[in-house]
Amino acid sequence: MTQQPSTPAQNSPVTVVGLGPMGLALAAALMDKGHPTTVWNRTPEKARDLVARGARLAPSVADAVAASPLTLVCLKDYAALYEALGPVGGPSAGRALVNLNSGTPKEAHAAASWAAERGVAYLDGAIMVPPPLVGDPGSVFLYSGPREVFDAHRDTLASLGDSRYLGADPGLAVLHNAALLGLMYATMNGFLHATALVGSAGVPAAEFADLAVNRFLPTVVDATLVEQAPNLDAGHYPGDLGTMEMNLNALEHIARTCEERGVYAGQPRLMRDIAARAIADGHGGSNYLAVFEVFRKAAER
Ligand SMILES: NC(=O)c1ccc[n+]([C@@H]2O[C@H](COP(=O)([O-])OP(=O)(O)OC[C@H]3O[C@@H](n4cnc5c(N)ncnc54)[C@H](OP(=O)(O)O)[C@@H]3O)[C@@H](O)[C@H]2O)c1
C-alpha cells in the first residue's frame, strides 16, 4: 500500500472506531483540534454527543474506515478488533489503521499479519494516559510498526499528545504498555502497603503521602534508578554501599513488622523471596539491583 505524504494536521480527516470511554476521548480531542471526524461504534447511541458536536456517524465500519486516511481503532481487545473490522479489507491507497487497544506482543504480531493479509497499513499503539488527559501535549502515546506508516500520519497523531515511535516490531508498543503498567501497579501497591503499615499506628494517609511521595521517593528511589540504569545493561552490581544480604535482612524486618501489626505480609514476603533467590544465584555480595537478574532470567530456570 502506498502511503500519502502528511497533510496539515488540522485538515486531515480521522475515523475513530470504538466509543468506549477512551474512544470518546480520542474523537473529542481530534474534534477539538479541528479534524473532520467520522466515528463508528457497535452501539451507535454512544456517538450522540459527538454527533451533536459535528462528528459524522458512519452507517457501517467499512464506510467509517473508507471515510478517512487514518482510522484509530480503540476497542476492548484484539478479539473485538477482528469481530468489528472483519468486513474491512482490500488495499486502499494511503489508508492506515492504528490499533490502540491493549493486549500482548503476540496479539500485536497476529494483528499486524491480519492487516497485511488485507492490504491494510497497520500500526499498533498504546495509550499511556486516562481519557481526560487525551489531547494534552504531554500525554504519551506509543506506536510501533512500519516507520513509513507512522511518518505519514505523525502530524495527525500529534493531535492526541506526545507520540513516541518505538520501532518496526509491531509488538513493541504493547510490550512497553505492559512494562509501564506493571511499574504503575507495583508502585501503587508499594505506597498503599506502606500507608497501611503506618496506618496501623493511626498515621493519616495524607500525612504519610507527603513524606513518602514528596520526600522519600524522589531522593532515595527515583534518582537512584535513573543513575543506576546503565549498570543494569552492563550486569554490574557493586555492593560496596550495601549488599543483597543486608537488603534481605531489611525485607525480613518489613515482613515481621507486618506480622506484628496485623498488616498483609504477602507483599514483603514476595520481595524477600526474590532477594533470597538472587543470593542463591550468587549475588549475596551484590547490591539490591541484582534482583534484575532474577527477573530477566526467569525463562532459563
Ligand atoms: N479507559 C482507560 O483509562 C484506558 C487507558 C489506556 C488504554 N485503554 C485501552 O483502550 C481500549 C478501550 O478502552 P475503553 O476504556 O474505551 O473501554 P473498553 O470497555 O475496554 O472498550 C469498549 C469498546 O469496545 C467495544 N467492544 C467490545 N467488544 C466488542 C466487540 N466484540 N465488537 C465490537 N466492539 C466491541 C465497545 O463497544 P460497545 O460500546 O458497543 O460495547 C466499546 O466501543 C482498551 O483496550 C483499553 O485497555 C483504556
UniProtKB/TrEMBL annotation:
Lineage summary: Bacteria, Bacillati, Actinomycetota, Actinomycetes, Kitasatosporales
Name-wise, this protein is: NAD(P)-dependent oxidoreductase
- For the NADPH-dependent reductive aminase-like C-terminal domain, which residue ranges apply? 169-297
Q: Which PANTHER family does this entry report, sorted A to Z?
A: CYTOKINE-LIKE NUCLEAR FACTOR N-PAC (PTHR43580:SF2), OXIDOREDUCTASE GLYR1-RELATED (PTHR43580)
Q: Which residues form the 6-phosphogluconate dehydrogenase NADP-binding domain?
A: 14-162
Name the domain of life this protein comes from: Bacteria
Q: Supply the enzyme class, top level.
A: oxidoreductase
Q: Which GO terms describe its molecular function?
A: oxidoreductase activity
Task: Write down the SUPFAM superfamilies for this protein, in alphabetical order.
Answer: NAD(P)-binding Rossmann-fold domains
- Family as reported in the entry's similarity comment: Belongs to the HIBADH-related family.
From the record, what ranges are coiled-coil?
A: none
Write down the species: Streptomyces rubiginosohelvolus
